[in-house]
């Protein structure tokens, strides 16, 4: 399957020649704060190095396949073993108008980000009107998958705390580097066999420093998923990384009860209730599991309608609640060892 045009080493599809500075070129030059050594190998941008297997996920304009990457190695060195990967294939012709720039941002941001809790693009190429993005295969799917098939009523507090802490570390990495995710939810918290949680689906992630938005550090575009959407986003007001903190609080409730608040209502009603009614909160005692006052307080602090009064991701990580979270290996024997999506 020959590629008609390569994206280059770990980058997004190139733009038309003659263009000057673009958001992606700014990303390429950016020095990421808190970047760490990547423990996983980068793959290649050569489609001949991959064998595509069965589909494992479907989106509005994309399909995710389980695939195998076959490293070429270097002359004289022993052959390297094949690597299972996830291969996201996007049909560019089916994307909404003006979405290519978002797609370029996603692949560039996910290529450059080096954090153990942020999903990274490890190879990409174009073939006709399709874009192929190779990523680490997260064998357990998402936190939403894990709940759907194993814990439909929600998970116990230590599990929730361990998942949320890893998500928060990824979120903090994005925020301190000037990005907001804009679609934080359990379906975008990807999980692997070793208990790693990665913040995925950066397709709507935004750079707060782009000079096309004023004032610096604020956005006004309407994106996200209704149940998780912050009030200021719904109302079309300027917003920043605090909108992610609201979504994080909703996600925390989602993990405790198996679904987000108001999920059984029409999207239009969800949006209206989010604006008009008091924020949702954690029911500590009437679910499948009991929860602590500390978790309720964390959630309540995130779900304050005034975004200026919400804690930052960094502040949340400094709370005793998250400082005392168990290591990722806790998830292995607690929920993952016998679980298969």
TrEMBL record:
One of the GO BP terms on file: protein export from nucleus
Family stated for the protein in its record: Belongs to the protein kinase superfamily. STE Ser/Thr protein kinase family. STE20 subfamily.
Domain Protein kinase: 50-322
One Gene Ontology term, aspect cellular component: serine/threonine protein kinase complex
Signal peptide annotation: none
Region (Disordered): 1-26
Protein name: Protein kinase domain-containing protein
PROSITE patterns: PROTEIN_KINASE_ATP, PROTEIN_KINASE_DOM, PROTEIN_KINASE_ST
């Amino acid at each position: 399957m020959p590629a008609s045009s390569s994206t280059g080493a770990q980058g997004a599809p190139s733009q038309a020649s003659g263009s000057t500075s673009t958001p992606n070129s700014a990303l390429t030059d950016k020095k990421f704060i808190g970047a760490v050594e990547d423990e996983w190998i980068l793959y290649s941008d050569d489609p001949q190095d991959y064998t595509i297997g069965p589909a494992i996920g479907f989106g509005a304009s994309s399909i995710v396949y389980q695939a195998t990457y076959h490293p070429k190695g270097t002359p004289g060195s022993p052959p390297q073993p094949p690597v299972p990967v996830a291969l996201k294939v996007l049909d560019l012709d089916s994307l909404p108008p003006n979405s290519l720039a978002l797609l370029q941002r996603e692949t560039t941001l996910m290529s450059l980000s080096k954090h153990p809790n942020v999903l990274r693009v490890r190879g990409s190429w174009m073939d006709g009107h399709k874009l192929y993005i190779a990523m680490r295969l997260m064998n357990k799917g998402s936190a939403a998958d894990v709940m759907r098939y194993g814990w439909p009523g929600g998970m116990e507090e230590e599990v929730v705390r361990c998942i949320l802490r890893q998500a928060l570390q990824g979120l903090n990495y994005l925020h301190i580097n000037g990005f907001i995710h804009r679609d934080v939810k359990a379906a975008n918290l990807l999980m692997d066999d070793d208990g790693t949680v990665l913040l995925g689906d950066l397709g709507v992630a935004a750079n707060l420093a782009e000079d096309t938005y004023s004032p610096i550090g604020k956005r006004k575009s309407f994106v996200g998923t209704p149940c998780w959407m912050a009030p200021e986003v719904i109302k079309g007001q300027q917003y920043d990384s605090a909108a992610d903190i609201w979504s994080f609080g909703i996600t925390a409730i989602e993990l405790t009860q198996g679904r987000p608040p108001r999920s059984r209502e029409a999207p239009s009603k969800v949006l209206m209730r989010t604006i008009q009614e008091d924020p949702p909160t954690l029911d500590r005692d009437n679910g499948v599991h009991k929860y602590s006052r500390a978790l309720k307080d964390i959630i309540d602090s995130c779900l304050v309608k005034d975004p200026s009064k919400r804690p930052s991701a960094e502040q949340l990580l400094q709370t005793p609640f998250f400082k005392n979270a168990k290591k990722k290996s806790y998830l292995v024997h607690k929920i993952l060892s016998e679980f298969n999506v």
